TrEMBL record:
GO molecular function terms attached to this record: hydrolase activity, hydrolyzing O-glycosyl compounds
Protein keywords: Signal
Record-linked SUPFAM superfamilies: Concanavalin A-like lectins/glucanases
Family stated for the protein in its record: Belongs to the glycosyl hydrolase 16 family.
Name of the molecule in the record: GH16 domain-containing protein
UniProt keyword Signal present: yes
Top-level taxon of origin: Eukaryota
GO biological processes: carbohydrate metabolic process
UniProt cross-references to InterPro entries, sorted A to Z: Beta-glucanase-like, ConA-like_dom_sf, Glycosyl_Hydrlase_16
Keyword Signal: yes
UniProt signal peptide: 1-16
One Pfam family of this chain: Glyco_hydro_16
Domain GH16, residue spans: 18-353
């Protein structure tokens, strides 16, 4: 059993101490992977296998294929690739993508076109999404990673509950340790604020339904020409019943303090309190597991933002946004350069308090 000594101040990848008030916590490392085995350890990780593009209408299929997630020189790569490179472009006209037939499984209790798609309903990108088999309820999460560069890439390091104790998303909560966009020239249209590869964001999500929820968050920006795709950084979460602190390296980006009367009251959510049976920190009082993935496109991108030198290559109102994205590949594909489009992960550590 490991004894860790932390400060109550800023916590970083190295547990920086910023004041003289220290607290001793008894902690156990429940998960560690530095990828030194040379392959993805199936005792530690599960692959998501799905064809529907996730909850934000993204443009990727998640596969267990080695071209989309692999280990090289002690680093995990999560790499988006073109579906047409794997199956041929004719798949979008006459093809069938049957994930259970291809891989022997499809993640979750998916129905219909979430596991089997035909023709132009097939997503144009293949990518990887890994889920930790370990989980924690209160603890420290550290992921040392370098983010991808390339237009419309959406890397994420996040946590979801191991079971929907309070109900389906967002009832049981979500913790976003890092989300970013791979675009080099992407900004808010009204004030020119960067929103691409120089910016990352942290959020928490909670509420009784998708249209009655809260998603408070904060962005963190690099300056002087630095990009998150240039170097490795430690993205971390420090989680107790009293707070959720999210940060990078030795910086605390945001501390979400547990409200004295709970998140339901603090969020002014409508209806009966679905977390009344839990702690004041509910729904963040249950075990969560870690997710690493690279998505492409979808609602995380804002059609009102400016991208240079061309606008967003799909329209949010179109029924088949992913095929419009594919048809406009001459715009974005030149920004995708080999393994630069991969999220690279050196290590993952999960400590249980």
């Amino acid at each position: 059993m490991l004894i860790l000594i932390f400060s109550l101040g800023v916590l970083g990848g190295g547990y920086a101490l910023t004041d003289d008030h220290h607290v001793e916590r008894r902690a156990t490392t429940v998960f560690y992977d530095d990828f030194s085995s040379g392959q993805i350890d199936t005792q530690k990780w599960d692959h998501d296998v799905s064809a529907h593009g996730g909850g934000n209408e993204e443009f990727q299929i998640y596969t267990p294929e080695k071209l989309n997630s692999y280990v090289k020189n002690g680093v995990l790569y999560i790499l988006p690739t073109l579906t047409a490179d794997r199956f041929g472009a004719d798949i979008f006209r006459h093809g069938v993508l049957d994930l259970p037939a291809l891989y022997g499984r499809c993640s979750g209790d998916w129905k219909g076109n979430k596991c089997l798609r035909k023709g132009d309903q097939i997503k144009p990108i293949m990518s990887g999404k890994l889920l930790s088999k370990a989980s924690v309820r209160y603890g420290k999460i550290e992921v040392v990673a370098k983010l991808p560069k390339g237009d419309w890439l959406w890397p994420a390091i996040w946590m979801v509950p191991t079971e929907d104790h309070y109900g389906i998303w967002p009832r049981s909560g979500e913790i976003d340790i890092m989300e970013s966009r791979g675009n080099t020239h992407y900004e808010q249209s009204w004030d020119g604020k960067p929103e691409g590869v120089t910016v990352e964001a942290v959020h928490i999500h909670y509420g009784p339904s998708w249209n009655n929820k809260k998603a408070p968050g904060v962005e963190y920006q690099l300056h002087n020409g630095h990009k998150f795709s240039d170097d490795y950084h430690t993205y971390w979460l420090d989680w107790t019943k009293d707070y959720l602190k999210l940060g990078i390296d030795n910086h605390t980006i945001k501390a979400f303090i547990t409200p004295p009367q709970g998140h339901w009251h603090e969020g002014h959510l409508q209806g009966d309190n679905i977390w009344a049976s839990g702690g004041k920190d509910a729904p963040f009082d249950r075990p969560f597991k870690l997710i690493l993935n690279v998505a492409v496109g979808g609602k995380f991108f804002n059609e009102g933002f400016k991208n240079y030198p061309y606008p967003q290559p799909w329209h949010d109102a179109y029924a088949n946004k992913s095929m419009e994205f594919w048809a406009n590949r001459h715009l974005w594909q030149p920004t995708w350069h080999g393994e630069d489009v991969a999220m690279k992960v050196k290590s993952v550590k999960m400590v249980q308090y």
